[in-house]
Amino acid sequence: MGTTAVETTRLTKRYRDVTAVDELTLRVAPGEIHALLGLNGAGKTTTIRLLLGMIRPTGGEVRLLGTPVRPGARAVWSRVGYLVESPSAYPELTVAENLAVAARLHGLRERSAVTGAIERLGLGPYAGRRARTLSLGNAQRLGLAKALLHRPDLLILDEPANGLDPAGVAEIRALLHDLAHRDGVTVLLSSHLLAEVARLAGRIGVLDQGRLVWTGATGELTARARPRLHVTTRDLAAAAAALLAAGYRPELAGDELLMAGEQAVTHPEAVAEVLVESGCPPTRLAVEGDDLESCFLRLVAP
């Protein structure tokens, strides 16, 4: 499949005075689950529309599975499945009929493809229902079933857990995990649900105002949520010098010192003893852990 499943180079989209995507350079490896995280308006959906050729970029390039995305390039789409924003369906057709139409468009053996998709997404009880009667969560399942119908090598999903209850979210998480780790499918998804993404994705990219402000392994982001010892004292400079001399590694953060080392976190009383002996007694000493949302918000803070 090559060295990259998704590749963008300085991808840009402007709408008059608004830059929705700003020189985005992204690499997604084959078989990887890669998440794009961002607040509303960060550029996630615009990025996905650019990847799928739904809108033309102002500048830059997109390659999917090694193929440039440009008008007239059709062959790659037989290997790509996608779900963008609200799932679309023929409202007066049933779930099974909607999937049958999609199967014919892909040139698939209709009955086996539809049956497999219905089973995989838990749509059996709703197969005979018209699409317009589905709940938001089941409409989302139908959209995912259509995206998976032709067994693509690459899945591009915009907020795939939208409208699902906690049990449904867990099912979709397990499904995407199996697709990537058992079948080698590459998954690129957008989401604002940081805690859920951290349980699924191997790598994360954080978008803010159309720019990729951070990218890395999920473990690198979760490591930022580790517990740290927060220290305040009347003389931070002297306290930091004393702690350094005692073998600690304090970091100045505003009006406090932060210490992430295991010794400081598990034995804050030893830190207090060093500070008292140096003439800088602490006015506050507390072990606190950041949550993932706080880490994320710091990344996109103005």
From TrEMBL:
InterPro entries: AAA+_ATPase (IPR003593), ABC_transporter-like_ATP-bd (IPR003439), ABC_transporter-like_CS (IPR017871), P-loop_NTPase (IPR027417). Residues 6-234 form the ABC transporter domain. GO terms for molecular function: ATP binding; ATP hydrolysis activity. Keywords: ATP-binding, Nucleotide-binding, Transport. Gene3D superfamilies: P-loop containing nucleotide triphosphate hydrolases. The keyword Ribosomal protein does not apply. Belongs to the ABC transporter superfamily. This is ABC-2 type transport system ATP-binding protein. It comes from Amycolatopsis pretoriensis. The lineage of its organism: Bacteria, Bacillati, Actinomycetota, Actinomycetes, Pseudonocardiales.
